[in-house]
Design brief:
With 107 residues, the protein is an alpha+beta fold. Helix content is 26%, strand content 30%. The chain has 2 helices and 4 strands, in the order E-H-E-E-H-E. Strands 2-3-1-4 form a 4-stranded antiparallel sheet, covered by helices on one side.
Length: 107
Amino acid sequence: MTTTVKIVAIFPEILWPEMEELLLRLSVRGLSLTPVKGFGSYRNYFRKDLLSTGLKLEIYTTSKAAKTLTRAIESFIDTHAAENGLVAVEPVIRTNIDLNSDPIDNS
């Protein structure tokens, strides 16, 4: 059974141009990109509040396509941001559109 999921990735904003190229190669058809502030393993000690800036990427897709996308995004972040990135996949209970016509072939 194919279900809908949301992939969330948080990474340093300097990596966006390369991440965008990756997503275009993977034929991602829709995404949301939001600037975020926070800290995980990295803290910006030059700021009083220790926050660093990053981007939060959200992609709604099928669970089948999510496997390919998640592996690619995780590999990219592990290579370029190491401990400064996060990738998560969340289940989605309901959407108003059908995502089953996703172009990514996960064969």
